[in-house]
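Re: Re: token formats

Sure, here are both.
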Amino acid sequence: MSFTASDDFLKTCLEHNFWTWSAQSKVNPIPVTKAKGVYFWDTSGKRYLDLNSMVMCVNIGHGDERVIEAIVEQARQLPFAGPQMATQPRGDLCKKLTEIVPPGLTKFLFTLGGADANENAIKLARGYTGRFKILTRYRSYHGATYGAISLTGDPRRVAWEPNTMPGVVHFLDPYRYRSTFHRLNAEIPEEEFSRDYLNHLEEIIQYERPETIAAIMIETVTGTNGIIIPPAGYLQGVREICDRYGIVMICDEVMSGFGRTGEWFAVDHWKVVPDIMTMAKGLTSGYAPLGAVAMKPEIAAAFNEKVFEGGLTFNGHPLSLAAAIATIEVMQEDHLVERARQMGEVMADMLAELAERHPSIGEVRSIGLFGAIELVKNRQSKLPMAPFNQNSPEMMAFRKYLLDHGVFLYTHWHTVLLIPPLIITQEQLAEGFEVIDRALAIPDAAVE
């Protein structure tokens, strides 16, 4: 990538900004100047097709004037009110959410984003049950604050150990392509596959003792760790286990919510209602920072007499609430959930076509506009194109080719994520897939 000499703000950012998720000497940010629809532009005028919804959040697309005007109008009316105050946007968003969340989730705690939504969910579950332990999966990401990073199963957690939140126990995901249990039985029926992983979860519960476990938290559809879609019966089985042992079921829908999977929330595909559900990202489509915890009334009632010790200055910020209300209205008016379902079928066909042509593709997976390409050096051995928790020259060259040719997406180790705005057209998807098709020549050349 090359940018013009007039990128003054880029120079200032590189001189003074401390960058997250980065070794500071190696950052190379794109100096973004504007964004509209499914595209954004840098200071040189180069256009990028945004196949990652910026940070998996701009579900309605960039620059929707309806949301912008709602934020502006709220700023004129009431730019800020404290978290202990009732406001019109707070009441309006509560009403809006009851229209779209699974039935029975009628109480809402507003947060600043997904990480603190997940941290508050844990506080609620522990306070409700009087228990301490939390079970989460290894291929999970729940945020970067100290509690949320402890909940996270993937190696992003390890950098901050041992001083993360205690009481978290991890278990294995039902990841069929790389199943620990079924390497010699790849053709096992899906229901049996689910049962084996539910048995694995229940065995861990027995070892840890169910009376010590407050909650099981899962990403309904695993996000950055590879778009792992629960097999038939799995989510219902987790619900049944939680009911049997009095464990709170928490579904993290921070990434999979708000139409991403072709339903308002991923749990809707399996008709499962969790006790607590967390959300952020698509809640405002990234137009303002906001997260939320939706819960059943009995969870909230546990704090009718005892104080819920938690909260931040900007919880329920009016500008963010206004952005969320407008975002949900845009999704309803433009039928974006239905559109995601329809375009998800188109993207699934495009993914299948790529898999047929490229020997470096081990598997493709998608649900709605939530997709992944898993790149391997050998289809038989499933040797990944990059080692676990590492990059590789092939993956770096692949992503560089995409950026050089104006396609922005996210790669995680050996997987490629496809998470475009829900407004994307078939023609725009084809535009991106044409570049991906060419870029795949790079990992193809590394196939053994």
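Second one below.
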Amino acid sequence: MNEKNTATDGTPSSGGTTVTPEETAALSLRLAGDVFLPGEPGYAEHTAGFDRSVVHRPALVVVPENADDVATAVRFAAGLGLGVAVQNTGHGASVPADGDALYLATGRMTGVRIDPEQRTARLEAGVLWEDVIPAAAEHGLAPLNGSAPFVGAVSYTLGGGVGVLSRQHGFAADHVHRIEVVTADGEPRVATEDENPDLYWALRGGKGNFGAVTAIEVGLVELTRVYGGGLWFPAESTRAALHRYRTWAAEMPDEMSSSFFMLDWPDVDGVPAELRGRFALHLRLCYLGTPEEGERLIRPLREVAPTLLDTVTDMPYTEVGTIHNDPPTPGSYHINTFQLRTFDEDVVEAVLSLVGPGTHSVVGLELRQLGGALARPPKTPNAVAHVPAPFQVYAAGVLGTGADDEVLAAQAKVVATFAPWYSGTRMLNFMAGIAHTDPAYVREAYTADAYERLVALKTAWDPANAFRYNHNIPPAHTA
């Protein structure tokens, strides 16, 4: 018999739910995929995501092979009063799945189907962008992927999705045509502009709050190459390069995306020899027009000072991940992210005071230019906040190295230093790890009207908050 620890308000407590061997065996017989219980081989493997600051200890893990498996698992969870956690790569992990959770690890659902005539792609829940980019490139097309190709395509898109094409083409969520989802009652449904339109609106930006998405159909853009790469400036040129970048970025067309990242680069394998053990400013650039025009546009940056490295070149879109060159190594991270209402001289000086040369900061800091199509309403409305904030802050520190207190103190200083320019808004996809789990932070990823509508739809579609192991939008009666 199933036994459950329950709090006085009816919400499952952290004590966990005992799923009996008989119940597990019965579930396993109905699945094409696998089931793992705590302590069994495969349990730890499937619950260990990219960001390991969030540790999952669910009652059981289900590894579905297809959408039918997902529906079966969600119905099983509903029958036992379990919540449902859904994860692919774990880049955007937030609330840990506890003993009252059935954990869906979607990594085996890797179907990609390109329709070159319609310029669309159907992506199953476990697909990575590195699976989609070359498949689309065979037809002269490109998806609106993020800067790291090894991120899950579906969860990234449902959270909004910002990459090097976004200033020109908008959020990835703006280009979703169709969503296949299993809702909290275990029913497979389709959400489009015409079918379940409220669910369609909410899932595009509301991410995993309204069901387990098994596949999406997204639009692709005609693109085969970009002019992009990085400029690395040494410590002594950092102030001049940042001030030049500030005025330069304000004049750029939507076809140009840019960001910068600053830190003391470690002396480890994988870091270019020119950077190891020294401070450097990394400007990341991507232009969607001709190489000749791209070279002309970035010339003022190249003229600031000699660079340690200059990798900006004409490249096939299949190499787009080399622009940001994000590290693919899992680890335990502390992330802070929010948007700024301006990027002026004082903000540049604030950046330098936090992570500039000589600070030896234990966090790295990125500022990413927004604007363009990210600030304009999409053709088909969705829950993503299209706000006018021109730049986004992303600060990251590594936990578990013996310097956790220093990392947390540095992150608190980042928040306090940027407070005068904080826009009051955040992007859901960047709110990863342990720092942004409270619904009060999640609320800042939406406009007030959108959040009110999301709560109403959450109350209608998932009144028991079964899908709560996420950046949660609680139903009205539990808010």
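The mean pLDDT is 94. The CA atoms of residues 109 and 126 lie 5 Å apart.
- S.
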